[in-house]
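[retry 2/3] Thaumatin-like protein 1: previous attempt timed out, resubmitting with same input.
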Amino acid sequence: MEIQMGFLSYHLFLVLLITFKGVSGATFTFINKCDHTVWPGILASAGSPKLDSTGFELTKGSSRSFQAPTGWSGRFWGRAGCNFDGSGHGSCATGDCGSGQIECNGAGASPPATLAEFTLGSGSQDFYDVSLVDGYNLPMIVEGNGGSGTCATTGCVTDLNRRCPAELKIDGGDACKSACGAFGTPEYCCSGEFASPTTCKPSMYSEIFKSACPQSYSYAYDDSTSTFTCTGADYTITFCPSRPSLKSSSDSSTTTNGSGTGPIEQAALASQWLANLATGDSIRTCPLPFFILVIFVIILPFLYL
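[retry 2/3] Thaumatin-like protein 1: success.
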C-alpha cells in the first residue's frame, strides 16, 4: 500500500509540475549585443496584461528579463538613436513609440522597425515570428529555450540598412521602410482588392527582405516560412547578434547542417560572400604550398607506422 501511494504521489507531482509549467507562461530575456544602447519597447495585445515595463534602456552588453503569463500576446522591438533627459522624457530616431518617454505606455513602434511577435499558448503551442512587414531598423533574433517541439531560432542578422533601396531609406539611412510604408498603395499594403493571400503577392521589395532574412516575415501573407511554434519554452530576444545561435532543432529544415551552420547563418554568410565577391575581396583560404606542407607534416609520419 505504501509503495502504491508513493507511486501515485510521484505521478501526481509530475502532473502538477506539468500543469504549473503550462500556466506559468514564459520568461522573455532581452540581450543587447549592439555597439550602442538600445531601448526595447513592449506592446501587449488587447486583452493581455502589461509586463513589468513597456519600454526600458538596455546598455551595450546588458540583459533584462520579464515574466509573461500564459496566454499573453504582444510584440517587442528595439528603439535606437534615443535621447532621454534625466526625467525620462525624450524620443528616438528609429522605432520611437511616440510616448515622449522611455516607457511606451501602450503605444506601438513607429515604422520602420524590426518586430518580434508572440502568442503564448495556454498549455499548448506558443507562436512567434520576427516581422519586417513594418520595415527594419535593427538586427534581431529570437531563440526558444527549454521547450518541446520545433522551437527554431528565427530572425534577421543581416544589416538591411546597408542594402536598403534608396527609395525605402529614411533620412540618415538608420532604418529601411517597407514598400507599404514608402508608397502606401494597396498592392504593397495587402489592402483593398489585394487583401487576401491569393491577390497579395511578394513584391520586388519584399523579395529583397526575404532573400536577406529568409525566416522573417517580408509581407503580410508570408506565413508558411515565417511563423514558428514551441511548447513550454522561455525566449531570448537578442539585438545585433554577432552570429546566429546554432541550437539544435527537431525540424531538419531548421537544424544545423554538416558544416555547422544553420539556415540563418547560411543566409548571412552567403550575403557576406556575395558582398565580398562584388568588391573583389573574396574569402581567402590558405596558400596552396603551405596547405600541402601541413598535409605532409601531419600525415606522412603515419604512413611509416
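[retry 2/3] Thaumatin-like protein 1: Residues 26-243 form a domain with the Thaumatin fold (CATH 2.60.110.10).
[retry 2/3] clearing retry counter.
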